[in-house]
Amino acid sequence: MPMPRRIPKRGFKNPNRVEAFPINVSLLDKMFDSGATVDLETLRTKGIVPKLVETVKILGEGELTKKLTVKAHRASETAKSKIAAAGGSFTLIETRVAPKA
After folding, report:
1. C-alpha to C-alpha distances, 81 to 35, 36, 52, 58, 73, nearest whole angstrom
2. Where are the beta strands (DSSP E) in the chain?
3. pLDDT (tens digit, 9 = 90+) per residue, 50-81?
4. b vs e for 25-39, b when ≥16 Cβ sit within 10 Å of the residue's Cβ?
5. How far apart are CA 39 and CA 72, in angstroms?
6. 90 pairs with which residues across the strands?
């Protein structure tokens, strides 16, 4: 029997999956002053996000006490509500879709 038929097939790895870099609102509260704009470039300059990361997701763990303007690719509903409760705003950044070859 040929080797590919003898080896068990397990799982599936989606080649089009985009991993988002997670950031909690507690980290934003610690690192930024009130009234600041938080986007991908400011996160890179503060050293929170590595250079090669293209998408960022804001998660709702922790407390947010400062008014921030957050621009990110994704955010959880908890994070959106905590940003709004602190008096800030959230703007969704559209992700770039790579053309299929």
Report:
1. 17, 18, 29, 11, 16
2. 21-24, 37-38, 56-59, 69-72, 74-75, 89-92
3. 999 999 999 999 999 999 999 999 999 999 99
4. bbbbbeebeeebebe
5. 6
6. 70
Q: How many residues are there in the chain?
A: 101
CA distances from 18 to 21, 31, 40, 84 (A): 10, 26, 16, 27
Q: Specify the pTM.
A: 0.80
61 in Cβ contact with 25 (< 8 Å): yes
What does the alpha-carbon distance between residue 90 and residue 37 come to, in Å, rounded to a whole number? 10
Amino acid in position 84: A
Please tell me whether residue 68 adopts helix, strand or coil conformation.
Answer: coil
In order of start, what are the domains of the chain with their CATH numbers? 20-92 (3.100.10.10)
Q: Where are the alpha helices (DSSP H) in 1-101?
A: 3-6, 25-31, 40-45, 77-85
